[in-house]
C-alpha cells in the first residue's frame, strides 16, 4: 500500500508556563487554538 503524504500545515504560536496559543495561517479561514496547560483535559 502506498501512503500519500500530506504537507504539514504552517503555523505560528506562543507558549508560556500556563498557556499555548497557535494559529495555522495558510488555511482559509485560519484555524486558531488556545489551551490552558494545567486544566485542559485534551492535553
Could you characterize what this model shows?
The protein has 43 residues and is an all-beta fold. It is built from no helices and three strands.
Write the layout of secondary structure elements.
Elements: E1 11-15, E2 19-24, E3 31-36
Antiparallel strand pairs: 1-2, 2-3
| Overall helicity | under 10%
Strand order of the largest sheet: 1-2-3
What's the order of the H and E elements?
EEE
The total strand number stands at 3
Beta-strand residue percentage: 35-45%
Cα-based radius of gyration, to the nearest Å: 14 Å
| Mean of residue pLDDT values | 88
Assembly category: single chain
Task: Indicate the low-confidence ranges by residue numbers.
Answer: none
Computed structural class: mainly beta
What composes the largest sheet?
3 strands, antiparallel
Shape: extended
Quick structural summary:
The chain is an all-beta fold. Helices cover 0% and strands 40% of the residues.
Amino acid at each position: 500500500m502506498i501512503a500519500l503524504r500530506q504537507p504539514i500545515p504552517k503555523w505560528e504560536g506562543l507558549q508560556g508556563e500556563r498557556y499555548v496559543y497557535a494559529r495555522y495561517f495558510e488555511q482559509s479561514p485560519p484555524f486558531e487554538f488556545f489551551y490552558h496547560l494545567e486544566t485542559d483535559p485534551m492535553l
